[in-house]
Amino acid sequence: MSNIWKVYMLALASFLVGTSEYVISGTLDKISHTLGVTIGSAGQLITIFSLVYAIFTPILMAVTASMDRRKLMMYALSLFVIGNMVAFVLPGYAWFISARIIMAMGEGVVVVNALTIAAKIAPEGKRGGAIATVVMGFTASLIIGVPIGRVVAEAFGWKSIFGGIALLGLLVMLVLYLILPQIQGDKPVPLWKQLALFKNPKIAMGLSITFFWLGGYSIVFTYLSPYLITISGISESMMSGILLMFGIASLVGSKFGGFSTDRWGVSATLISSMTLHIIMLVLLSVVTGSYMGVLIILMLWSFAAWTTGPTQQYNLATLEPEVSGVLLGINQSMMQLAMAVGAGIGGIFVEKVSLSSVTWIGAFGVAIAMVAAFILMSKQKSSNIRGIVSDRDLLD
Predict the structure, then answer these.
(1) Which residues does 350 contact at the CB level (< 8 Å), separation at least 6?
(2) Contact between 49 and 123 (Cβ < 8 Å)
(3) Radius of gyration for the chain, computed over Cα atoms and rounded to the nearest angstrom
(4) For residue range 231-273, what is the model confidence (pLDDT) as tens digits?
(5) Which of 104, 150, 271, 275 is 20 to 30 Å apart from 188, CA to CA?
(6) What is the DSSP letter of 1?
(7) What is the model's pTM?
């Protein structure tokens, strides 16, 4: 099997674990009713998952850094499957919390490991595209997995979703075990050294790009449905079509981000995508009452936002190549924290200021990310110039 198809199988694994994470939001009412808890308590399942993912992913990636990547993928998928089986078989809110914790620990390692393997098996000059494909699989889980999960929940009950994911997880494990080569792990990085990476100005600046870009996106995305109905003047009957097109644009953006990174480089892709991101959020606050106008803005916003995704993953993976796996793990944690913080900040502005304010606050967050990108690029350019001068001095 060619490495291209191996990358697509890694994307399928990414899609599966992403669906397990996001499907909760689409079935929250059914889960709360079945478990006999409030919507708020059911919503804590999302918070718990994000926190476990954010905290344990970098720890587990550090501990397993030297392990063969294929073996690590098998262990991580096993943990993920066990979590889904617990959710399917055992009753009650407490057991479901336990299942979500197990899923989150497995998922974080699966996603980071998939990104790492994809970058290592891709041909030279195609690594950005390989990373983009895996990211696209994860993005597709939000766009495709959640609606399918809702349909399955209505037909067979929400627990059946996790039983089905467990079975598919076993199948993906078997396929990946058969097709993936043995891939040497990275040099082990102790946890204290991992945390010390934040002292590296380039890494700290690189991670801040993720935090402010995705945080700004989350501020608006979390409240997108009420915003479109209340502020943009979109009727509820049109919402499903608009959200579907929004999702398709995100998939296209993810794939284009990899292509653009390979073709025009990280700097050009990051700056252009975040510039478009900011412009679209500002226009969203201005254009109202026009279905086509709002739809075009939303599609361009989604396209721009997710063009940034794979480019930023590649950017971090190349900042310090010898610890790329650890950096990708930290970045996944940063993404989870950014989504949680963005949703929280958005909620404060919705309650204290107005719903219409979220687009401006979101645009401001992305603008900070763009400033961080400029600073990082300036540092890298200066470093490259110094390196060239030093080489010339040696030759002289």
Answers:
(1) 223, 357, 358
(2) no
(3) 21
(4) 888 876 777 677 778 878 888 898 898 889 888 888 899 999 9
(5) 104
(6) -
(7) 0.70
